[in-house]
Amino acid sequence: MLTALDHIIIGVSDLEQATITFNEMLGLQASGGGRHPTSGTANRIIVIGDTYIELITIRDAAEAQQSMRERLSKGDGYLNFVLASNDLETDSAAIKSRGVSIIGPTAGKLTSADGRSRGWLRTDIERPDLTQHYPFLIQHDSIGEERRKRLAGWTSPPPHPLGAVKVLSTTIAVADLKEATQRFQHIYGLQPSSPFTGEADEWEAMLVAFPLNTSSQSFELAEPLPLASNEAPDTELLSQPGGLAHYLQTFGESLCRITLAVEDLATARRYLDEHGAIYTYSEPTEMHPHIVLWISPSSACGASIVLHELPAWDVIDNAPTPG
Predict the structure, then answer these.
(1) Contact (Cβ atoms closer than 8 angstroms) between residue 134 and residue 81
(2) What is the rounded average pLDDT for all residues in the chain?
(3) What is the pTM of this model?
(4) Looking at domain 2-151, which of 3.10.180.10, 3.30.430.20, 3.30.200.20, 3.20.20.60 is its CATH number?
(5) Contact 64, 39 (CB under 8 A)
């Protein structure tokens, strides 16, 4: 079963500087990381609840995936996200039975600076040149709190000064929502929601969500509204008029944002202000009853990040899953 959002991958040209940006400007603390021995890459890990953000860079271009090299040639930003499976063999067979070409399951490994390693199995969708196009599936060699500790460098993951406690969703920009919904449903065997507007986030988009029920997370598809501005925005903010259409023109169908839950949005704002992060913020109104905060890609290594406040009663419910 596909159970959760396992991790989000952000490609960066300078891993050390990206780590400083996330640690200091955004208050999202990196802890674990290391090198992928056969992939030509190195990473740092930011554990948020049961999900993590992976900051990844190319250390050997000859070994790195072509799709990663091509995406990073356009600048830092999202590469992909990954779906967790609790039975990768069965999930892979189910995808294959629907006529979808897959690669895997194949084994992967990361070695830390002190020589310790952790492993996983992964299955990729379609051809190797599309590895950054469709989310791949993963099953780690550990679960629960043990997995979180290994990800964090064989220690307890640190708290985040920003107050982030959970990754709520990921969003893929698509040109045709109806077609993409049918395609992703066919590939992953998940049931989509009814279409809904991006009004809650003051976004010119129509969306569909694919819930991952055991984790209360989802991944979304987002299409620019037909009447949205076609003019190139004067900023790189995805939330600005024309921002989503411009993102699609630049990067094609791909991951465009993530949404994080924080314990207290006022505290998160103070932290971002004190550390010079750029963001947009909208106070609640009668038409838009929710607080909306979008962190600018210029402050997050090319990544658009939305913050939502987690209701107080939900903080305990969304504590990391025990092993």
Answers:
(1) no
(2) 90
(3) 0.92
(4) 3.10.180.10
(5) yes
